[in-house]
Amino acid sequence: MTRLLGIDLGERRIGVAIADGDGSPARPHSTLKRAANPDLDAAALGALIVANQIDEVIVGLPLEASGSDGPQAAITRAWARAMAERLKVPLTFRDERLTSHVAEGRLGPMKRGRSGGPPSKTQRDAYRARVDREAAAIILQDELDARTGVGTAGHRATVRPVDDR
Q1: Can you tell me whether residue 136 is helix, strand or coil?
Q2: How far apart are CA 24 and CA 79, in angstroms?
Q3: In degrees, to the nearest 5, what angle opens at C-alpha 155 toward C-alphas 152 and 159?
């Protein structure tokens, strides 16, 4: 059975989701703190890949509303290439437009702080981490649906890992 890891890459966090290729739905897994060094991101993801017996990684690609690449898509593509070289697993991009918005809709509004006041920094950070995990699950589910012909086509491109030589 093929196991897939979905990624919602952000500037500060990496939302992660997992799915089995057997038709079961994608499920949010965890949120990793994004490192300044790609080797640290690769080490954290590599541990998840080994522990969960992942066969392929699906990375959300933040395209512009027009469908073209913008600055954030270029950053994501560069990061994904670096991960593919280090992780040696197939990596596929999936259009992620509006996934964070959909994730927020699924999770509902952020909880208020004590006595109905504004949420604390800890509450905001925890909510953003949940949104990132949920967005990763949406990205991964979109890919699963596209593979089975259930969803919309969306944007998809594959980055092959570099040979071990």
Answers
A1: helix
A2: 28
A3: 135
- Cα-to-chain-centroid distance, residue 140: 7
* Distance (Å, whole) CA 94 – CA 147: 12
Count of CB atoms situated within 10 Å of the CB of 154: 18
Is residue 21 predicted with pLDDT exceeding 80?
no
Q: Which one-letter DSSP state was computed for residue 116? A: G
Q: How many CB atoms lie within 10 A of CB 100?
A: 20
Q: pLDDT digits over 69-122, tens only?
A: 999 999 999 999 999 999 999 999 999 988 888 888 888 887 777 777 888 888
Category of 88 on φ-ψ map: left (φ > 0), alpha (ψ -120 to 50) or beta: left
> Are 87 and 49 in contact, with CB atoms under 8 Å apart?
yes
Tell me the whole-structure pTM to 2 decimals: 0.85
CATH match for 3-159 among 3.40.50.1980, 3.40.50.720, 3.30.420.40, 3.30.420.140: 3.30.420.140
- In the numeric block, which tokens belong to residue 45? 């993801």
pLDDT in tens, 109-149: 877 777 778 888 888 899 899 999 999 999 999 999 998 88
Overall residue count recorded for the chain in this entry: 165
